[in-house]
Design goal:
Bound molecules: 5'-O-[(L-methionyl)-sulphamoyl]adenosine
Shape: elongated
Strand order of the largest sheet: 3-2-1-11-12-7
Helix content: 40-55%
Number of helices: 21
Structural class: alpha/beta
Radius of gyration: 26 Å
Largest sheet: 6 strands, parallel
CATH architecture of the domain at 338-494: Orthogonal Bundle
CATH superfamily of the domain at 338-494: Isoleucyl-tRNA Synthetase, Domain 1
Distance between the termini: 56 Å
């Protein structure tokens, strides 16, 4: 049977500065989802990329004494390096300066113009340069951008408009008929009451005030205004409109993951644009919350950005990925702080997971240096823990269906907690003392090892290195830490009693060394 496809995207990021932990947040989330779906047997296409046109990029490049293209090429390399550092496994990376994309956007403009969805007018509005967005008087906060707080500039210029207003009723129907189109649901209500019901205005889709953009084919004085250019990436990256093989296979997107500040563009302009082009709509848009620092959105201009490269170098990639997905419910705002990160590393990773593995492995090595004896394992195993693991897996699957990463991880950590409790209750160190208890001890340790094997699979979408380290110590990895599919596939987590007989268990270094929190925080402060 052919695999079912799954197409998931991140926003394409502005390379106007170094990406920070907030951008990494979206990308790590999409990567976890893509890994999960691959493990579930889907044919996944995970798209990310960079949004490279617009005034801000042009100005930033000028300041750096470079041409936009020179500047962007360097930035794109840096962004790809960051994703590599975070173990992001994307299938496509689009740059809006890719030739194919530029031509495709021109074709889209031409079609919309010919069919009357784009018309000429003149625009007066309050423009936010950092966000590249126009705001109305009522949306502006004291003349400042409601998103980033920059001062808005009153701007008037000749512009072409996209007839968004024409799609008003269809958009309303889309939201009403598809309660899962935009999640979390509260964001859909916000779109309906703040934008659709009061009446959608047509949107300016070209500019003449700068020239770092795609030339509009029917009026080369104008360049494409960034949002149509940017949003189209989701289909042009699949080859639309010339080479439709990938497009036919993967479109419509299963989910566009974005931050809440760009929900408006994705859930109103994007579907209307697709309606105008008579193309299918994405199945879902998920607008996640912001990662705040000191209660404020991170932004370069506020100087409160957290550098993911520094964090990964200090603590390792898995702790960072874990923290991002565990600490904050995906739809809500949350805070980043060094204290919260270190506390999570110490409690969830070093204490709960790390200790569970090292205690289990140490006890096996000490009592059964030749490996768990197969003949003892016929003794009754403790099914209660196995049942708990079955239920955990069911919960993880249900949570992942709704991108509830923090709940999925919470469930896995409840299983880890249960395993630790199981050690406290069965007291293997007492069983070890008397040889006649060794069959029972073998069965207890087997149960623990088999559940650790299942845990290693369940955490695989979120943590990219830890599962192999666990398998190595448990003696179920071959050679360089790679294990057979039978030990790594999602289905293997569903099956109990797969742990090997007589495995070569090996004590390893602690996976997550404990951090002295006060000392660490003091040293971070000293650096600032
Ligand atoms: N280029 C547009 C997106 C076009 S998509 C067709 C853009 N780029 S951006 O570089 O500003 O990136 C915005 C995205 O980065 C947000 O939507 C969000 O996914 C992520 N984040 C940036 N800062 C963030 C936080 N502080 N917290 C969480 N996510 C944040 O907008």
């Amino acid at each position: 049977m052919p695999k079912e496809k799954y197409y998931i995207t991140t926003p394409i990021y502005y390379p106007s500065g170094q990406l920070h932990i907030g951008h990494s947040y979206s990308t790590v989330a999409v990567d976890a989802m893509a890994r999960y779906k691959r493990m579930r047997g889907f044919d996944v296409f995970f798209l990310t990329g960079t949004d490279e046109h617009g005034q801000k990029i042009q100005k930033t490049a000028e300041k750096a004494g470079k041409t936009p293209k020179q500047y962007l090429d360097e930035m794109a390399v840096g962004i790809k390096k960051l994703w590599e550092l975070l173990d992001i496994r994307y299938d496509g990376f689009i740059r809006t300066t890719d030739e194919h994309h530029e031509k495709a956007v021109q074709a889209i403009y031409q079609q919309l113009y010919e069919q009357g969805d784009i018309y000429k007018g003149s625009y007066e509005g309050l423009y936010c340069t950092p966000c590249e967005a126009f705001w109305t008087e009522s949306q502006a906060v004291d003349g400042h951008c409601p998103d980033c707080g920059a001062k808005l500039e009153k701007t008037e210029e000749s512009s072409y408009f996209f007839r968004l207003s024409k799609y008003q009723d269809k958009l309303l129907k889309l939201f009403e008929d598809n309660p899962e189109f935009l999640l979390p649901r509260s964001r859909a209500n916000e779109m309906i009451s703040n934008f659709i019901k009061p009446g959608l205005e047509d949107v300016a889709v070209t500019r003449t005030s700068f020239d770092w953009g795609i030339r509009v084919p029917f009026d080369p004085e104008h360049v494409a205004y960034v949002w149509i250019d940017a949003l189209s990436n989701y289909i042009t990256a699949l080859g639309y409109p010339d080479d439709l093989t990938n497009y036919n296979h993967y479109w419509p997107a299963d989910v566009h993951v974005i931050g809440k500040e760009i929900v408006r563009f994705h859930s109103l302009i994007w579907p209307a644009l697709l309606m105008a082009l008579r193309l299918p709509l994405p199945k879902q848009i998920f607008g996640h919350g912001w990662l705040l620092f000191d209660g404020d959105k991170m932004s370069k201009s506020k100087g409160n950005v957290v550098d993911p490269v520094v964090l990964v170098e200090k603590y390792g990639v898995d702790p960072i990925r874990y923290f991002l997905l565990r600490d904050v419910p995906f739809g809500a705002d949350g805070s980043f702080s060094n204290r919260a990160l270190i506390e999570r590393i110490n409690s969830d990773l070093a204490n709960d997971l790390g200790n569970l593995l090292s205690r289990t492995v140490a006890m096996i090595v000490k009592t059964f240096p030749e490996g768990l004896p197969g003949e003892f394992l016929e003794a009754p195993v403790d099914v209660e823990l196995d049942d708990f693991a079955d239920e955990t897996l069911r919960q993880v699957e249900a949570f992942m269906d709704h991108l509830e990463f923090n709940h999925a991880l919470e469930s896995i950590w409840a299983l880890i907690g249960h395993c630790n409790k199981y050690i406290d209750v069965t007291m293997p160190w007492i069983l070890a003392k008397d040889e006649k208890d060794h069959p029972r001890l073998a069965s207890v340790l087997y149960t623990l090892a088999d559940n650790l094997r299942r845990i290693a699979v369940m955490i695989s979408p979120f943590m990219t290195r830890t599962p192999a380290l666990m398998r190595e110590q448990l003696g179920i990895a071959d050679g360089d830490g790679e294990a057979a599919d039978s030990m790594t596939s999602w289905e293997s987590a569903r099956t109990r009693d797969l742990y090997r007989r007589n495995p070569e268990v090996r004590k390893g270094k602690p996976m997550f060394p404990r951090i002295d929190i006060e000392k660490e925080l003091a040293s971070i402060e000293a650096l600032q």
